[in-house]
Amino acid sequence: METRLRVLGHPVHPMLIVYPLGLLSMAVIFDLLYVATGNADLATFSFWALVAGLIGGLAAAVFGLIDWLGIPSGTRAKRIGAFHGVGNLVVVGLFTLSLLTRLGSAAYLPDVLPLVLGLAGAVIALVTAWLGGELVYRLRVGVDDDAGLDASNSMSRGGVVDTEP
């Protein structure tokens, strides 16, 4: 089942998810490094990684919702896609709370609560990322109908922005 929105022949949602996944996971890692070293610069980086990761996560969610709406109702893919999407909303919520709890502290230093919220968000993100992989690699959601080892060039199938499967 092909994705509904592509750029240069490739689905938009998978292109966007790498940024929030990377930024939000790095925020957790830099929080842990801050706790281990006491270096406030690490906490500041974590704060801004959270901001950028949340913006990226919301952008990816819009395109994920567009793709999910194109999945036929009553299918396993529709159910897994719903768990994937709702789970990612929980992830964004936990990281948002982690960000908000830092706002009152000098240099955005996290105490225990933001760290726990970030760790919980990271664990749930691992599960939702696995669900996204299940959608693509097992259920072939978003995979080009022409896919194969000798498939045509993705750019030959449409223009710069292709909204038709």
What's the topology here?
Elements: E1 6-7, E2 10-11, H1 12-37, H2 40-69, H3 76-100, H4 112-138, E3 161-162
Antiparallel strand pairs: 1-2, 1-3
Helix pairs in contact: 1-2, 1-4, 2-3, 3-4
Structure at a glance:
The protein has 165 residues and is mainly alpha-helical. It has helices spanning 12-37, 40-69, 76-100, 112-138; strands spanning 6-7, 10-11, 161-162. α1 packs antiparallel against α2 (40-69), α1 packs antiparallel against α4 (112-138) and α2 packs antiparallel against α3 (76-100).
Description:
The chain is mainly α and 165 residues long. The chain has helices spanning 12-37, 40-69, 76-100, 112-138; strands at 6-7, 10-11, 161-162. It has one domain. Helices cover 65% and strands 4% of the residues. Helix 1 (12-37) packs antiparallel against helix 2 (40-69), helix 1 (12-37) runs antiparallel to helix 4 and helix 3 (76-100) runs antiparallel to helix 4. It starts with 5 loop residues before the first strand and ends with a strand. The mean pLDDT is 89.
